[in-house]
Specification:
Blueprint: E1 5-10, E2 15-20, E3 25-36, E4 39-46, E5 49-55, E6 61-62, H1 69-83
Antiparallel strand pairs: 1-2, 2-3, 3-4, 4-5, 5-6
């Protein structure tokens, strides 16, 4: 769920502008943001694949630390259960 990005910038219209390490610029849809243990996190989607990152005070993004992924995945799975209708 982590995309290798060089820079990212949040916008006000549920879109995030991301510059990948290879220099390619893409737009991603913001799924949701949340705060946990004093840190801000964002979940976003590119081509129907979910990714996550931490939001710094200047609204730039950094990779989620390895020891935080269990928490992020738990919150993402709860969000999926609440927001995505099943096909049943």
């Amino acid at each position: 769920m982590n995309k290798n990005f060089k820079k990212a910038k949040l916008s006000n219209n549920n879109i995030i502008d991301i510059e990948l390490e290879n220099g390619k610029k893409i737009n991603a849809n913001i799924l949701f943001t949340f705060e946990e243990n004093g840190d801000q996190f964002i979940m976003y989607e590119i081509d129907e694949i979910a990714y996550g990152a931490k939001i710094k005070e200047d609204n730039s993004l950094v990779a989620i630390e390895e020891d935080e992924w269990n928490l992020v995945e738990k919150i993402f799975n709860e969000w999926m259960e609440e927001n995505i209708e099943s096909d049943e």
